[in-house]
Amino acid sequence: MILQECVDYHLSFANSTGLFAFQEYLNQAPTVADTNSTKECGDLREYLGYDPDFPDDDHICYEFDHIKCRSDFTSLDDPIASSSDGDSIEEGVLRTTLSLKRTGESG
Predict the structure, then answer these.
(1) pLDDT per residue as tens digits for the range 19-45
(2) Is residue 97 scored above 80 in pLDDT?
(3) In whole angstroms, how far apart are CA 72 and each of 20, 66, 78, 96?
(4) Taking the CB of residue 16, how many other CB atoms lie within 10 A of it?
(5) For helices 3-17 and 20-27, angle between their N-to-C axes, nearest 10 degrees
(6) Torsional class of 104: left (φ above 0), alpha (ψ -120 to 50), beta (otherwise)
(7) Short-list 57, 50, 72, 51, CA closest to 7
(8) Domain extents in the chain
(9) 74 alpha-carbon distance from chain centroid
(10) What is the pTM of this model?
């Protein structure tokens, strides 16, 4: 399966099942318009936590089945509470979680 097709499939799944944090994570992923572009494919692989030249996109797609139900996504889909500044607590946590995922830090 082409990696972009895999992202699109899981984005559709997230939309239809209410996995909003996972949906937001995928919505922010770089897109691949040209499957022959090593830069576009590499950017997407890197966003998903792999080396840009990782040789096995099927493995990455397989891993989607495991990460979409991870607690750092599912716990963010609990009912939204509000903070004192009016932003939802989940929005701040989601931004922090996604930022940490992109930088490779742990929370």
Answers:
(1) 888 888 899 999 999 989 999 999 999
(2) no
(3) 12, 12, 11, 11
(4) 9
(5) 150
(6) left
(7) 57
(8) 3-103
(9) 12
(10) 0.65
